[in-house]
Amino acid sequence: MHKAVLATALAAALLLPLAAQAAERVQHGSIFPPWQHGENNDAAKRGLSFTVPQVDDLADFHGDVSDPKLVLYVGGNYFFAMAPLVAAFEQQHPEFKGRIYWETLPPGLLEKQIEVGGTVTSGNMTWTAKPDAYLAGLKKVQSLIDRGLLTGPAVPYVTNSLAIMVPTGNPGAVKTLSDLARPDLHVVMPNPEFEGIARQIEASLKRAGGEALATTVYKTKVADGGTFLTQIHHRQTPLFLMQRRAQAGVTWQSEAAFQEQVSNPIAHVDIPAAQNTTAIYAGAKVRNALHPEAAQLWLSFVRSPAALSIFERYGFKPFTGTSAG
C-alpha cells in the first residue's frame, strides 16, 4: 500500500507542472475558436453579440438561419477559408449578400444531419437548415451520390496533403511519422468514426512504418492514453497542442498554415511525398435542395480563379484531374 501511495504522489508531482502550464495557456481566450473574430458570420444584422469561448461558442455554424438563399454543408477541413470565399462569391453575386448559411462539421456528421432532414441540436438549441450543396472529400461525395442523398456529378476543385502539427519550438522533437509511436509522446489524432482524414493518415502511417506503426498510434496508444482522439474534428488538434495536452498531431497542411498565419503558437513538420497522402475535395448538389440554382452557382464558383487563389493562400492546389485520391 505504501508503494502505491508513493507512486500516486510521485505521479501527481510530475503532472503538476504540466497542469500549471495548461492552466496558464487556458487563461488566454484567444487560443479558443472561433479564431476569425466574427468574419465567418454572413449575417447582415447580428443583434446582441454574445460569444464566450469554451462556454457559449458555436464555432461550426455560420450566418443567419432564418431565411438563407444558400445553405452549404462544408467538411470542416477549410473552415478558415470560408469567410474570404463567401465574400468573393457575394462580390460576384450581390443578391446573396448576408444570405448564406454554412456549417463546417466533419463530413460524417453532416451526412447524419442530411439523413434527419437538416435538423441539428447543439446545447439547448435545435434548428433546421436543409442543405443545398455538400462539400467534402471526393470519395465521400461520390458515396453519397451513390446512396441517393446527393445528385451527381461530383465537382472536384482542389487537393490537399498532410503534415504533422506541433507546438511552436517542437518540444516533442518530432521529425517523422514514426516518432508518433514513441511512448513518451502524447499525440492527438482525428477520430476514424467520422473523420475521413483518419483513413488518409492511416495510409501514410503504413507507408512510413507498416501496419505496426498504424496499430501503435491508432490502437495501442489510444488504449493506454497516449493518443487522444478528437470528439469534433481536427480543429481540436491545435487546441490540445496549445494547452500542452499533446505534443503532435497529424492534420491537413492547410490547417497548420492557417494557425501559423493567425500567429497562434503552432508550427508543422513536413511529411515526405513518398509517405504523404493527397486528398481531392469535391462537392455536389443535395437531392431535393431548396435552392438548386444557388447550389450550382457555388459549385461553379469553387473551381473559378477567384476561389482557387483563396485556396492557394493555405497551400491547397487546384485539382487537375490527375491527382491521387
TrEMBL record:
Indicate the transmembrane segments per the record. none
The molecular function terms of the Gene Ontology recorded here are: molybdate ion binding
Would I find Signal among this entry's keywords?
yes
- Top-rank lineage group of the source organism: Bacteria
Name its GO BP terms in alphabetical order. Answer: molybdate ion transport
What SUPFAM superfamilies has UniProt attached to this entry?
Periplasmic binding protein-like II
Give the keywords, sorted. Signal
Q: Where is the signal peptide?
A: 1-22
Q: Which InterPro entries match?
A: ModA/WtpA
Keyword Zinc-finger among record annotations: no
Protein name as it appears in the record = Glycine/betaine ABC transporter substrate-binding protein
